Amino acid sequence: MSGIESFVQQLTTQVTEIAWSIFILAWAVGWALRGSPIPIFKVKRTGQDFIEDAIMAAFWLAIGTTVFALVSYVAGQF
Amino acid sequence: MNAFEVLSISQDLAALTYFLGTLFMALPIPLYGVKKWGPKMISDGIYSTILVNLYETILYLVSVIGNQLGTNWPSYMNWLYELLANELSIFTVVRGILTIIGFTPLSVPFSLVLTFLSGFITITGTLIVISQLIYNNVGLLIALGVLMLSLPFRIGRAVGGGLMGFAIVFYVGLPLLPAFLSTFGVNVIQDFSTNINSLQALNSLLSNAIPDYIEGTVIMPTAYLGILTSLSLGVGSAIAGGYSRLPIQVDFV
């Protein structure tokens, strides 16, 4: 494995870890905004958007992790 | 570095692009300009992965299309080397005549012919280099195109599509140059040097060899390369899509 390849793989792992952390943060921030006792609809709507985006991101993270691992496994068999 | 090493890096870069996309999608920042990169990069990652895994299929399709159109690389390379040999043969004869007649008024047009021939030889040599580059490295060029397409933030999209389009179109189209010339009745593979003797040499060169070489090694190949370049730009654009969209829209993200 060349140096650049391991560098990119290491970077991808770090990005994935950060993405999961950000998902948890966005989920928490989203619920905090949505549940906050502030009578401003726009703030609550932003919180709702954060939650929706965080869920979608988590879904694509899970799918991506599975699919890319599968592709690497299948490619490694040849 | 061979094509499969490049593809391996492309696969990793596609994964990186994809996961960066999910990261941008999850960001708890209410800025559309930043968050819009999420779905875009997820689509890019998926598209790049598909291209990486279709590499062998792309090569096979290029080969099939080439066969259907009558592409024959060994025959084309022989044609190029024969053309170069003929040009060098005339060059040698003219040079010999110049040496014999020395510096006389007659030597001026011969010098002009020699200058023309040097130009033709340079053009043919360039064509040989380009042809060898494409013939020997078509797989690597396509893999490099995929690598550029896999880069995050679409920074190599236009270059990647251009490289892939160039490799595909020129691999299929370049060996058809002799057929293109034949269509227009241009035949540069004839031994002009046998017609040359000391008295008729200048007339023969000026009336036969030089006009045929200008047409067959400069004008027509330039036009043909222009056609191929236009086609490769089109194919590159079809592969890479525009800056803001993929060639096949992925609407589910």
Would you write up a description of this structure?
Chain A: InterPro entries: CedA1_arc. Chain A: Keywords: Membrane, Transmembrane, Transmembrane helix. The complex is a heterodimer of chains A (78) and B (253). The two termini of chain A are 16 Å apart. With 78 residues, chain A is mainly alpha-helical. The model of chain A has no long low-confidence stretch (mean pLDDT 92). Chain A has one domain. Chain A is 87% helix and 0% strand. The longest helix of chain A has 36 residues. Chain B has one domain. In chain B, helix 5 packs antiparallel against helix 6. In chain B, 78% of the residues lie in helices and 0% in strands. Chain B contains nine helices and no strands. Chain B is elongated and about 85 Å long. Chain B has 253 residues and is mainly α. At the A-B interface, helix 1 and helix 2 of A face helix 1 and helix 3 of B.
Number of domains of chain A: 1
The radius of gyration of chain A is 18 Å
Q: Given the helix and strand composition of chain A, which structural class is it?
A: mainly alpha
Give the terminus-to-terminus CA distance of chain B.
35 Å
Assembly form of the protein: heterodimer
Shape by Cα distribution of chain A: elongated
Q: What ranges of chain A have pLDDT less than 50 throughout 5 or more consecutive residues?
A: none
Which whole number gives the mean pLDDT of chain B? 87
**DSSP helix count of chain A?**
2
Q: How many helix segments of chain B?
A: 9
Global outline of chain B:
elongated
> How much helicity do the residues of chain B have?
over 70%
The H-and-E topology of chain B, N to C, reads as HHHHHHHHH
Number of strands of chain A: 0
The secondary-structure element order of chain A is HH
Beta content of chain B comes to under 5%
Q: First CA to last CA of chain A: what distance?
A: 16 Å
- Using the CA coordinates, give the radius of gyration of chain B: 25 Å
The biggest beta sheet of chain B reads: none
Query: Which regions of chain B are unreliable across 5 or more consecutive residues at pLDDT < 50?
Result: none
Q: How much helical structure, as a percent, in the residues of chain A?
A: over 70%
Transmembrane segments (chain A): 15-33, 54-75
InterPro entries (chain A): CedA1_arc
Keywords (chain A): Membrane, Transmembrane, Transmembrane helix
